[in-house]
Amino acid sequence: MKQGKVYLIGAGPGDLGLITVRGMELIKTCDIIVYDYLANPRLLESARPDAEIIYVGKKGGDHTLPQEEINKLLVKRVKEGKTIARLKGGDPYVFGRGGEEAEELIEAGAAFEVVPGVTSGVAGPAYAGIPITHRSCTSTMAFITGHEDPTKDDTAIQWDKIATGIGTLVFYMGVKNLPDITKNLMKHGRSPKTPVALVRWGTMPNQQTWIGTLETIAAIAEREKVAPPTLIVVGEVVNLRGKLNWFEKKPLFGRRIIVTRARAQASGFSQKLEELGASVIEFPTIETTAPESWDALDKAISSAGNYDWLIFTSVNGVGYLLQRLRETGRDIRELAGPKICAIGKKTAEAVEATGMRVVLVPDEFRAEGILATIGDVKGKKVLIPRAEEAREVLPEELAKRGAQVDVVTAYRTVRPQAKKDAVMEAVRDGKVDMVTFTSSSTVSNFAGMFADDELKEVIAKVKAASIGPVTTETAKKFGFTLACEPAEYTIEALTQSITEHFAKPSA
Ligand code: SAH
Q1: What is the mean pLDDT of the segment spanning 132-157?
Q2: DSSP assignment letter at 59
Q3: Whose CB among 218, 232, 282, 386 lies 3.0–4.6 Å from 171's, allowing a Cys bridge?
């Protein structure tokens, strides 16, 4: 039997980029992933498609699975010969009970390794503009649990020593006890004027920071209803935030944007928006799936050599055609013969990535663009593998010009209902700033997800960004307020125009 092993992995503080290379490698290869509520669930997208994913919770002490059960689960599964990525927020050995899990594994004779992570106590302050040490302020710092009841007599924290003996104090799990923590520090000699920062959901797009002093911060936290997960940073270094704040200054920081592209394509766009600081809600309103029958496509592929033009209108069209070639034991050589045209840069890139050459990419990335540049098609045979339901302009116009056009279904689009309620709730709470549309069908599919009165509410509260004129027209028809539309119909240009929109003082 294969030797099992448990990897206690620090998932980092939240920002997906802050997991270690080693941690990511293991997520990609392990049989089982066991994760906590503080580990960013999007890390799981990198897991093997057949990996077993187990959530063991832990939200403010409300354990979905008690620690003992987690330990038992790890031991049982590792003994079955499984490799297990045990993902914990931040670093597994910093207030993460990783030590206990490791002890349990050793006792059970199971193999384990630790993969340290970037702890939130370092990264959260850094993203809030606070270096936890700085030569001009302090040379010492401490990580302290704020979970312990500070009023109990047998406290393990020596308040008298840490209050004045250490420069920067970073408390984990301390919001609930904040009034007592600050009182204790002041009682033991720390100046009431000492600056304090609270950093909630540090390194995440929804990061929030509050600044006060030992005297004032408890009242601020109460007024603002600050909840976990939050770090308390005490010390003069907090003042550096005035100069060093960077993350919260990103152009889209604090903006919540819905991305409606199909899941497979959404991530590139989402990443761009997130890179600029936005909080992205991925809400795929269309997903692609195989056609009901492959007959038409198979037939077209078999006679590909007879065509003069092969026109791809989407990345999906390219993807499904290639997939079908592979599945039927063929390859791109079957497509030799016709000249290849692609609507849009991304589609052209997808074609060229296969080694085939695209001879025509119209300047205007839509059907009309092809019609303007393809030249004389009289008597030419044209093959268009595309979505079952798509605009008819291209085939109809080509036919009018005397071409013989074969449109074959390479894939279908379907409407996934999941997530709608969560989106509606976010809209109702006023937490959504914008919805992005990258095609007419994303508009109509988005609209189709909601009941009439719901859609009215969404349209009233959320403005839209559209990739181009056809999409804009559809969005306007539904009643959306258009915030921006780029001159070039690409995701890059759309991202740019969204950024420019939010840079306006009125946005
Ligand atoms: N092992 C984790 C800490 C677990 S204890 C680590 O190394 O970061 C849980 C506490 O960590 C929370 O109550 C909160 O104080 C802190 N924490 C974890 N992630 C955080 C984040 N992204 N932002 C703010 N605080 C966080």
Answers
A1: 86
A2: B
A3: 232
